[in-house]
Design brief:
Number of helices: 8
CATH architecture: 3-Layer(aba) Sandwich
Largest sheet: 5 strands, parallel
CATH topology: Rossmann fold
Order of helices and strands: EHHEHHEHHEHEH
Structural class: alpha/beta
Shape: globular
CATH superfamily: 5'-nuclease
Number of domains: 1
Strand content: 15-25%
Length: about 130
């Protein structure tokens, strides 16, 4: 049965789209949220780059604005995409899909989030 909510950061989105495996996110999760900062980084600023068109064309990816601002720790330690992804995963109690090591560590240790990277996501999709 698919997990309820996943929040995706830019690295996994780009890697999965480039590999032709973006559909794995849809197969594994009922809802896949993309924070606004990640969308701007991947789709708006990434026009013509690997994965941008595929991500923009996936109607099941939900571009999502944060209701609450990211906290000081996130803004000080991470880029805007990772910070918003963690904040959104906390807010929605979802699985965070991120590759960046520091973001993973902060998400798990400071916020108690479940975290999966690109490889774990693609591997989980192959097992289903």
């Amino acid at each position: 049965m698919p997990e309820e909510v996943a929040v995706a950061d830019s690295g996994p989105l780009i890697a999965l789209a480039f590999a032709g495996c973006l559909h794995v996110l849809r197969d594994l999760h009922r809802t896949v949220l993309v924070p606004d900062a990640v969308w701007r980084e991947v789709v708006d600023a990434g026009q013509g780059r690997a994965g941008a068109a595929e991500i923009a064309a996936a109607p099941w990816l939900q571009r999502t604005k944060l209701v609450n601002a990211t906290d000081l720790l996130l803004r000080a330690e991470l880029g805007p995409g990772e910070a918003e992804a963690i904040a959104l995963a906390v807010d929605r109690r979802g699985l965070l899909i991120v590759d960046e090591r520091q973001a993973r560590r902060i998400a798990e240790m400071a916020y108690g989030l479940r975290v999966r990277g690109t490889v774990g996501t693609a591997g989980a999709g192959e097992a289903t």
